[in-house]
Design brief:
Elements (H helix, E strand, L loop, with lengths): L2 E8 L3 E6 L11 H7 L7 H11 L12 H12 L1 H11 L14 E5 L8 E5 L2 H13 L4 E5 L2
Parallel strand pairs: 1-5
Antiparallel strand pairs: 1-2, 2-4, 3-4
Helix pairs in contact: 3-4
Length: 149
């Protein structure tokens, strides 16, 4: 399966990358749906105690929607298309040092203003997008880069 990374031109900032189509956070799932989707163990008493403590919820909350603020932060930091691109590109070897000018020039960002935790990455120019695609191919990563809709 091939993933699609989209680029979106942001005037003065370059090309913002998303893994999958850009979108706002969907409505929050229930806590139980979230735990299942994220592979978070929640069946034994010890697992329930641990996740209730770390998420500030009670076992009776499992079938209630995830708290909106938590859900939107998770989407911006971990699960949304901007964050997914950020984390994928942050973990792979992109070749020469980013500032050397010999590889794709990517800028990794956390938040664009106080209180914003969005994780995102911008490519400096079209050449950087081309070099990034070449590097993904060289690493045999099934990701194609295309213009966003």
């Amino acid at each position: 399966m091939v993933d699609t990374m989209y680029w979106h031109e942001i005037p003065g900032e370059g090309y913002q990358l998303t893994l999958g189509p850009w979108r706002f956070a969907p409505p929050p799932p229930t806590w139980r749906q979230f735990f299942i989707r994220e592979g978070i163990p929640h069946r034994t008493d010890n697992e329930v105690e641990k996740i209730c403590s770390s998420h500030c919820i009670e076992p009776g909350d499992f079938d209630k929607p995830v708290q909106r603020r938590y859900w939107e932060d998770w989407f911006d930091i971990t699960g949304g298309p901007l964050a997914r691109a950020y984390h994928l590109l942050k973990t792979i070897d992109l070749g020469p040092e980013r500032a050397s000018g010999r590889g794709p020039l990517l800028e990794f960002n956390v938040g664009s203003h106080p209180g914003d935790n969005t994780h995102y990455v911008n490519a400096k120019d079209m050449l950087s997008l081309s070099l990034l695609q070449a590097r993904l191919i060289a690493l045999k990563l099934p990701v194609k880069i295309v213009e966003g809709e």
